[in-house]
C-alpha cells in the first residue's frame, strides 16, 4: 500500500469491468476518491463503486463515451466538482474488432481510434489544463497493450491506436515534466478479462496463448492494478515517459526459448 495516495482523486475510464475495474478497486484500497467511468453498464459501474467504498475509498459512477469530446470534458469536470480536485487520470477505455486490413472501413478505423487514442488525448488535455491551473503535480496513466510493440494482424486499427498512445505518452511526459506532471504507459499482455474470455475458455486457444508467454500463465487484473498504484504513487516520483510492460515476458521474443 502507498500512504501518499490516500485522499487523492482519480478518474478511471472504462472502469465498470476488466482492467479498469481492477485499477479502480485497488485505488479504493489505497483510500482514494475514484470516478468510475462507464459507457454502457451502469449496474456494473455501481458494483465497482460499492467495491471501492467497501475497501475504504469513496467513489461515484459517471457515464461518458470517451469517443465524444464533450462527454470527456464533462467527465473531468464532474470529478473536480464532486471531489474538489483531480490528481490522477487513468485512460483505460478501449475497444477492438477483428477485420482483415484490406477490408477495414474508414468508419471502423475511426471508431477504434476515437476511443483508444483520441479519447485518451482529450482526457490528457483536460486533466493537464486543470493541473497546470492549480499547480498540481499530477499523474496520468495510459493503458496500452503489448501490441504497441508486437504487430497484430487483423487489428491494424487497434495496434495503430496503441502505438500512437505510446508516443502520446512520451510527448506529453517530455512537454510537462518541468511542471511536475508525470505521464506513463502500462502495456498489459494476456490478462484474464471478459474481453479475452472466449480465448481463455477454449483449451486450444488457451494453449496457443500460453506458448507466447515465457512465464507460462495468464495475467490477472490485480497485476495491472498493482503497477498502476505504484506508478501513481510517490514511490515512482522520478519515473515519467516510460512504458511498463506487464506481460509475463510476452515481448521478450519467447520463440528463442525453443532454440
From TrEMBL:
Coiled coil spans: none
Pfam short name (any one): adh_short_C2
Domain of life: Bacteria
Family: Belongs to the short-chain dehydrogenases/reductases (SDR) family.
UniProt GO molecular function: glucose 1-dehydrogenase [NAD(P)+] activity
Entry keyword Oxidoreductase: yes
Name of the protein in question: Glucose 1-dehydrogenase
GO terms for biological process, alphabetical: bile acid metabolic process
Species of the source: Paenibacillus mangrovi
Amino acid at each position: 500500500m502507498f500512504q501518499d495516495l490516500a485522499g487523492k482523486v482519480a478518474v478511471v475510464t472504462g472502469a465498470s469491468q476488466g482492467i479498469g475495474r481492477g485499477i479502480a478497486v485497488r485505488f479504493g484500497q489505497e483510500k482514494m476518491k475514484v470516478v468510475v467511468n462507464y459507457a454502457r453498464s451502469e449496474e456494473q459501474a455501481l458494483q465497482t463503486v460499492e467495491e471501492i467504498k467497501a475497501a475504504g475509498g469513496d467513489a461515484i459512477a459517471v457515464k461518458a463515451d470517451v469517443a465524444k469530446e464533450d462527454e470527456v470534458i464533462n467527465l473531468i469536470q464532474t470529478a473536480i466538482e464532486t471531489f474538489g480536485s483531480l490528481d490522477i487520470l487513468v485512460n483505460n477505455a478501449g475497444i477492438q474488432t477483428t477485420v482483415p486490413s484490406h477490408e477495414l472501413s474508414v468508419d471502423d478505423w475511426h471508431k477504434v481510434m476515437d476511443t483508444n487514442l483520441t479519447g485518451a488525448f482529450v482526457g490528457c488535455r483536460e486533466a493537464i489544463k486543470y493541473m497546470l491551473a492549480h499547480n498540481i503535480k499530477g499523474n496520468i496513466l495510459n493503458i496500452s497493450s503489448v501490441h504497441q510493440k508486437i504487430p497484430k494482424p487483423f487489428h491494424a486499427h487497434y495496434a495503430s491506436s496503441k502505438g500512437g498512445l505510446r508516443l502520446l505518452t512520451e510527448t506529453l511526459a517530455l512537454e510537462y515534466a518541468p511542471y511536475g506532471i508525470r505521464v506513463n504507459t502500462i502495456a498489459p499482455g494476456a490478462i484474464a478479462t471478459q474481453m479475452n474470455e472466449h480465448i481463455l475458455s477454449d483449451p486450444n486457444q488457451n494453449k496457443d496463448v500460453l506458448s507466447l508467454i515465457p512465464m507460462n500463465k495468464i495475467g490477472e487484473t490485480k497485476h495491472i492494478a498493482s503497477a498502476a498504484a505504484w506508478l501513481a504513487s510517490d514511490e515512482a516520483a522520478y519515473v515519467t515517459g516510460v512504458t511498463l510492460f506487464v506481460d509475463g515476458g510476452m515481448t521478450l521474443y519467447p520463440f528463442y526459448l525453443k532454440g
